[in-house]
């Protein structure tokens, strides 16, 4: 009886997993009170990600390696942690958009768009992530879990980005006013 119950539960688990969508989408935006020229390099230059990226706090075992170049089309970053390895490459970059291809464990492919929209005194940064889980029988569960983890991580990262960018912009403004005051006193 117990064996039959376990078999039914296993079959149910597999059927549900097969019925779940294998793809997922995450879209998160934030308004940052800073200029685009402050915000954009924090994202488009992988050597700046340590200032705001949440991944080191979420997984202290992660180690990042930067490729050359670290910015622009072809920029590359890879990582290794106790949870696995991955890599990210910038595939397109324009004045208002960055496109990334991300590969986890040599099989889990993610596409990401980062969109910059300059408003009067703010920049809206939008991360759009789409992914496809490819593990046999459990892809649906992996997709649900990935969407949940990425949604929370992107929200945390955007909040960190906002803090770093606004502090950088405020410092730039203060330094600018300081140099103007020194020039006007001369």
Describe the 3D structure:
The chain is an alpha+beta fold. The protein is 42% helix and 32% strand. The chain has a seven-stranded antiparallel sheet, with helices on one face. A hairpin with a 2-residue loop joins strand 3 and strand 4 (84-93). It is elongated, with a radius of gyration of 21 Å. It starts with a helix and ends with a helix. The model has no long low-confidence stretch (mean pLDDT 88).
**Helix and strand run:** HEHHEEEEEEH
Mean pLDDT rating: 88
The major sheet is characterized as: 7 strands, antiparallel
* Structural shape: elongated
Strand segment tally: 7
Helix amount, in percent?
40-55%
User: Rg from C-alpha positions?
Assistant: 21 Å
* First-last Cα distance: 92 Å
Low-confidence segments, given as residue ranges, are: none
Which class best fits the helix and strand makeup? alpha+beta
Strands of the widest sheet, in order across it, are 1-7-6-5-4-3-2
Number of helices: 4
Q: Strand portion, in percent?
A: 25-35%
Outline:
Helix content is 42%, strand content 32%.
Task: Map the helices and strands.
Blueprint: H1 2-19, E1 23-32, H2 36-44, H3 55-58, E2 63-66, E3 76-81, E4 84-93, E5 97-104, E6 108-118, E7 123-132, H4 139-185
Antiparallel strand pairs: 1-7, 2-3, 3-4, 4-5, 5-6, 6-7
Keywords:
alpha+beta; seven-stranded antiparallel beta sheet; 186 residues
